[in-house]
Amino acid sequence: MYAFTGSSITSFPSIKSRIALQFCTTSKNLGQGFCLQSNNKKKMRIQMKILMMACLVLCLISTAYAAQGNAVYYDPPYTKSACYQNQDHGTMVTGVSDALWDGGRACGRRYKVQCVRGANTAPHPCHDGASVEVEVVDYCRQPCNGVLNLSKDAFAVIADTVAGKVQVEYNPV
After folding, report:
1. Which residues pair with 151 in a beta bridge?
2. Are residues 32 and 79 in the same domain?
3. Which of 84, 87, 90, 95 could be stapled to 149 by a disulfide with Cβ–Cβ 3.0 to 4.6 Å?
4. How many domains does the chain have?
5. Is the whole-model pTM more than 0.90?
6. Claim to verify: residue 59 and residue 74 sit in the same structural domain
7. 159 shares a domain with 81
8. Which run of H or of E encompasses 15?
9. What pLDDT digit, counting tens, does each position of 111-159 carry?
């Protein structure tokens, strides 16, 4: 079914691969260049390491380049929204300005929001490391003072409400 011809094996590809792999594994000490399988394994390991590093870098870049803008808040009740009229979608909700509204297609999108710094004279308004996930339920008509118009409950998770307006990073979830 299979035969050795020189340094290669001719037969069914799967059988050839298994035999060649075992043959190469047991014959590594016969000299460099004799067994190409061990070189292929090394190349594969290097390629996997490069791929892993590239994925890590892409993940870090996507986090480093989160969208930024101002966030303000509005008081309850949070119903009567442009997306869902009188349906209750909880307290972790937001309205969005024209920058994100997308003709109403923003309804239901979710964002992870984190305070970066104050946007006015309030000293240290951000709650360090705090983030909140919000759902888009409303449209913030012009003049909207922020890209995100968070519910007061959501705003209070990431910053002091006394500040009224903060600079945030937001990422789609």
Report:
1. 74
2. no
3. 95
4. 2
5. no
6. no
7. yes
8. helix 13-26
9. 999 999 998 888 899 999 999 999 999 999 888 889 999 999 999 999 9
